[in-house]
Amino acid sequence: MKSRILCIGDIHLGNRTTRLPSNIGEYGIDPSELTPAATWRAAVSWAVAHDIEAVLLSGDVIENDRDRFEAYGHLKWGVEELLASRIPVFAVAGNHDWMALPRLSDQIPAFRLLGRDGKWEVVEIDLKNGTRIRIAGWSFRDRYYRKNPIRELSLTRDSDLPTLGLLHCDLDASGSPYAPVSSRDLEEVPVDAWFLGHIHRPSPLSGPRPIGYLGSLSGLNPGEPGPHGAWLATVNGPGDVQIELLPLSRLRWEALEVAIDGVEGSDPEDLKDALFSLMRRAIGRAHEDVVASPIRPRVGGCRLRLTGRTASHHRIRTLARSLVFPQETLGDTHYFIEKVIDEGAPALDLAGLAEGSDPPAALARLLDEIIERKGRAGELIAAARGSFGRTTANSRWSRLRRNPPATDDEIRRILVTAGFEALEELLAQQGEGEVRGRQ
Ligand SMILES: [Mn+2]
Question: What pTM does this model have?
Answer without folding.
Answer: 0.88
